[in-house]
Amino acid sequence: MQPVHKVEIIISSIEVNQVLDLLDRTQVSGYTVIEHTTGKGDRGLTDSNLGRAFSNTYILTVCTNEKQLNFLVEEITPLLKKVGGICLVADANWINH
Question: Are 91 and 8 in contact (CB under 8 A)?
Fold first, then answer.
């Protein structure tokens, strides 16, 4: 097993490409994107039935070192403050990659 940082991001679907560009700049080895997620947050309910503009996207990725994680946090924080969304980080172990 390899210790890693699991990063979960939920953000407006309109902003997904910005986040994916950021992940590419962070040089993570990959990510998973689940479109049309719904839920409730500080800005109210999101409903994917109203179209892309009102839906959220869930993104899961892994940072394998502190340098990647620190870069990602520094770069995504201004975007989250501007448009909303969340970014969760947790310690995890990679069993197989």
Answer: no
